[in-house]
Amino acid sequence: MIGRLNHVAIVVPDIAAAANLYRTALGANVSDPVDMPEHGVTTVFVTLPNTKIELLQPLGEKSPVQAFLDRNPSGGMHHVCYEVEDILAARDHLKAEGARVLGDGEPKIGAHGKPVLFLHPKDFCGTLVEIEQA
Amino acid sequence: MIGRLNHVAIVVPDIAAAANLYRTALGANVSDPVDMPEHGVTTVFVTLPNTKIELLQPLGEKSPVQAFLDRNPSGGMHHVCYEVEDILAARDHLKAEGARVLGDGEPKIGAHGKPVLFLHPKDFCGTLVEIEQA
């Protein structure tokens, strides 16, 4: 069912510093920061030959990644995102297998403009999993 | 400098259960478990179209991932591995940029039979980074 690894998301306390680190120390192709107020994050995309790393800094008072940063002040890996062909079919299969879908279970439009859902980390070995309709 | 994302490593408490979860709930292509006593882990490889997820369970008394599992009993994302063309050149560049290389700074032969180094998570936004000479 799952296809490509779309991205790994890393929450960071200072996105300018993180972008500089990936650009200079790791020598990667790094975008400018983009504020996404509707998602509560500022994002930098690190483009690798086969996938992306997304650096996320909380934006605004109700950022969905603020609690993670409070628990991990240095930052850390936040989630992985797997692509699926049909997000509703994927959701129904996952629910039938006993996985919990976060929120109301209906796909939302994610940061890439595509439908996404998040799966409960306790059902996936402590890893927050996003699925995105590719 | 960094090239492909070689893999994301996820430490799990029960590798048979984790393999079954990735095979059945996520419908992925999952290998049989492989014991790697020289690395202190049992590994399952989840092959995605563009990269790999490596599920790791501690093996033996001195497993390098046991402390992580003790802190995260449900498991969690442990590290990301980026490919580099020349690991010694990469190491020297990273050191010059102020990044700390773990251990004695000399590449070891990793689980894929290739030279690897690990970089201090405090220097990479709370993320343990492995570099592997591809």
From TrEMBL, chains A, B:
One of its GO terms (biological process) is L-methylmalonyl-CoA metabolic process. It catalyses: (R)-methylmalonyl-CoA = (S)-methylmalonyl-CoA. It is an enzyme of class 5 (isomerase). Its EC number is 5.1.99.1. Keywords: Cobalt, Isomerase, Metal-binding. Pfam families: Glyoxalase_4. Belongs to the methylmalonyl-CoA epimerase family. This is methylmalonyl-CoA epimerase. It comes from Oceanibaculum pacificum.
